[in-house]
Specification:
alpha/beta; Spore Coat Polysaccharide Biosynthesis Protein SpsA, Chain A; 2 domains; disordered C terminus
Length: 315
């Protein structure tokens, strides 16, 4: 039995998946298996993986069911005690699994492990500004408090490692969600278990990937968006001020494009009515008090000047 099972969901990411898989093959720690779940790709990403002949690699093929189902199906056949996740357009440093093994040995009772990571944007790399002190090396973190500091995810999917029993306890990723399914799982785990962070950037989060296949570049029906479908832990918000601050900030920031959209504006307002606006930045308070038509014109001008096309345009 391997110590780690690595799950890569694959859907139309042929230009990137080989690099992701090769980064796993290059790991200095070798007690692992890799399960690639081809989620009904229509490009040759599966063929790219098949050219990398290695006994550690297994390929599963399924009809397109979405990333949550793909990851869950990968875990269902996994044999490792710890589950690591890597998206097909991201990649690891070669010491990621070795560092993760050491982190687990030093903190054996945690329910979620992660390392820091590098943002890759316009061909440049910079360490993600996770909300921990500059001299923080490793240890337990208050997941919600750290996230709320900078609204930069302290745990991304490609840096996360979950004990198999904790994943099973939580029922895995919620299949109905198409945006925020990873955040939803980390949040559920953080309510019951310790989250441990190693503040070394060992994962590359590729924001240069084709935006057509990135969930954050489009609007999602509220039925499939995490901010409209917070789990049962929402009931504990009054007891956890960090959770309340985080979710309110994510609502204010993340629902803005939905607020600009005629189709989703009423649904966005229902969630925004839950926000404690006195704890939100004045700039955002002013923005939401501005007539929608003016906001739409502003966003259109800003994005046109930047040559950007995407969901923030009014529609």
């Amino acid at each position: 039995m391997p110590l780690f099972s690595v799950i890569i969901p694959l859907y139309n990411k042929a230009p990137y998946v080989r690099k992701a898989v090769e980064s796993v093959l290059a790991q200095t720690f070798v007690d692992w298996e890799l399960i690639v779940v081809d989620d009904g790709s229509t490009d040759d990403g599966g063929k790219q993986v098949a050219t990398l002949s290695d006994s550690h690699i297994r390929m599963i093929r399924q009809e397109n069911c979405g990333v949550s189902v793909a990851r869950n199906n990968g875990v269902a056949v996994a044999q490792g005690d710890y589950i690591c996740f890597l998206d097909a357009d991201d990649w690891w440093c070669d010491g990621y699994l070795e560092a993760m093994q050491g982190l687990i040995a030093r903190h054996p009772d945690a329910g979620l492990y992660s390392t820091a990571y590098l943002l890759v944007k316009n061909g440049r790399q910079r360490q993600a500004p996770i909300g921990v002190a500059s001299d923080f090396a490793e240890g337990a973190i208050d997941y919600c408090a750290v996230y709320a500091q900078t609204l930069c995810m302290p745990v991304i999917t490609g840096a996360a490692c979950v004990p198999r029993h904790v994943f099973d306890e939580q029922g895995g990723f919620r299949r109905a969600l198409t945006l925020g399914e990873d955040f939803d799982l980390w949040l559920r785990i953080a309510q019951k278990h310790t989250v441990v962070l190693l503040n070394r950037a060992l994962v590359y989060y590729n924001q240069d990937a084709d935006p057509r296949h990135r969930a954050i570049r489009r609007l999602h029906d509220p039925a499939h968006h995490v901010l409209w479908n917070l789990p049962e832990i929402e009931a504990h918000a009054t007891e956890n001020t960090s959770y309340k601050q985080l979710i309110d900030s994510l609502r204010v920031y993340g629902l803005y494009p939905y607020y600009l959209s005629r189709r989703y504006r009423d649904a966005a307002r229902q969630e925004l009515d839950k926000v404690d606006w006195q704890r939100q930045p004045k700039a955002w308070r002013r923005r939401y008090n501005t007539p929608v038509a003016l906001l739409q014109i502003r966003e259109l001008l800003l994005r046109t000047a930047a040559g950007i096309k995407g969901y923030l345009l009014p529609h």
